Amino acid sequence: MDINIAPTKSNLMSAKATLEFSKKGYELLDQKRNVLIREMMSLIDRAKEIQSKVKVTFEEAYEALRMANLTMGIADVEDIGDSTPEDSEFEILYKSVMGVEIPKIKYKKKDVQPVYSFYQTNVSIDVAFKKFQEIKWLILELTEVENSVYKLAVEIKKTQKRANALENIQIPKYTDIVKYIQDALEEKDREDFFRLKVVKKKRIKKKVKAF
What we know:
Elements: H1 9-72, H2 74-83, E1 90-97, E2 100-107, H3 123-210
Antiparallel strand pairs: 1-2
């Protein structure tokens, strides 16, 4: 590496300080990356679990809906579906994980009362109604988890990039600079010591001749 810097003590102190700062920065980034990866992996496991529940619950809901269509008629089932109110009672909050803002969906898990008459319906529509409620809660939870995984993955990539820059560029660069300046200063000290030794010998010789 071509080092274009004056080998002075002040530059050595500055290079050592930058090297130490870079090493500490790398350690912090490495710790942050490990924490984020652990958090993301736990969320991925949770997402898989929720996805599995969603799949099973969807199958149960559609089977109940199919039976309701067969026993009640598609038109009546559609009317019930259209009359069911939309539920928007949830709030999106955020929590920080190592500086990464990840979403937290706050909602009350309460049963929505059917709006249809029990006189003209049967148990199939009740099961379908209940199962689709469960799916709604699962999807809210899955949305929260998957969004969090995405945000963490983006931050892990950024952190990895910064850590790599410090480990592979910044730290080796300033390690070389410190070594270069230290070697140059040590060489200068040796030369100065040798010159002083020569001067001292000449003075001794002059004193000897004077006597």
